[in-house]
Amino acid sequence: KELIYTESDLIITPIIDNPKIMKPMPVRFDLKTLHIPAHSAEKLSSLKDMDWNDFLRQICTLLDSVEKNTGAARSKLNLLHYLCTVAVHKEVASKLMSSQLFPVLIQQLRAAANWDIRAKVARVIGLLALYTSELGENVPVSEAITILTELIRENFRNSKLKQCLLPTLGELLYLVASQKEKKEHPRECWVVPLAAYTVLMRCLREGVRLFHC
Asked: How far apart are CA 156 and CA 150, in angstroms?
């Protein structure tokens, strides 16, 4: 009887069906509007260098295109949905993180006119950071952290946007910390700006204040 009922049952909110806990929506993509071969993660990890470079070139070209209309924006979102599905493969994530795709994702995070696209780009970056096992020496992680920090600071009162951006910032910070432990000499492009810590502390303080209210 003591094991069935505990005091914590009265003070801890259950996780199951708790509306305060956001559940990420499952990511699906439409093959018809993808405009690139829908290779599986396993297929991507076994591509020859020439095919891999051609695949990356297609993705970067599509992401760099301007969203002139709703259809173009939907097409770009669909591509980002596809990237979310393959970014959970460790080998593919590491290759994408160290490729020319990562700077293109950073540029989209900075300049995309559509906030849905920015949010999905942040999700792709977060997944890459989570599943990357080896970080390339020249990957511009600092730039990504700086942009995320600026976006969170500029939209601090927008809880929905913060919930999209903060997890990615956290994954990048953890990735940098774990990679620095492996390297004797940390890289300049891995330096974490002080503003990132300032914004995180502000978010924590705001969260505590709201919790107590």
From this structure: 10
Token digits of residue 19:
């509306």
What is the residue-level pLDDT of the chain in tens, covering all 213 positions?
Answer: 666 656 655 555 555 565 655 566 677 888 888 889 899 999 999 999 999 999 999 999 999 887 777 888 899 999 999 999 999 999 999 999 999 999 999 999 998 888 899 999 999 999 999 999 888 888 999 999 999 999 999 988 888 888 889 889 999 999 998 888 776 555 666 788 889 888 888 887 776 333 332
Residue type, 173: L
104's CB contacts (< 8 A; 6+ apart) are: 59, 60, 63, 64
Q: DSSP readout, 57-99?
A: HHHHHHHHS---SHHHHHHHHHHHHHHHHHTTSHHHHHHHHTS
174 vs 66, 133, 135, 150, CA distance in Å? 32, 12, 12, 19
At 87, the amino acid letter reads A
Q: How far apart are CA 126 and CA 167, in angstroms?
A: 7
* Ordered structural domains, the chain, with CATH: 21-211 (1.25.10)
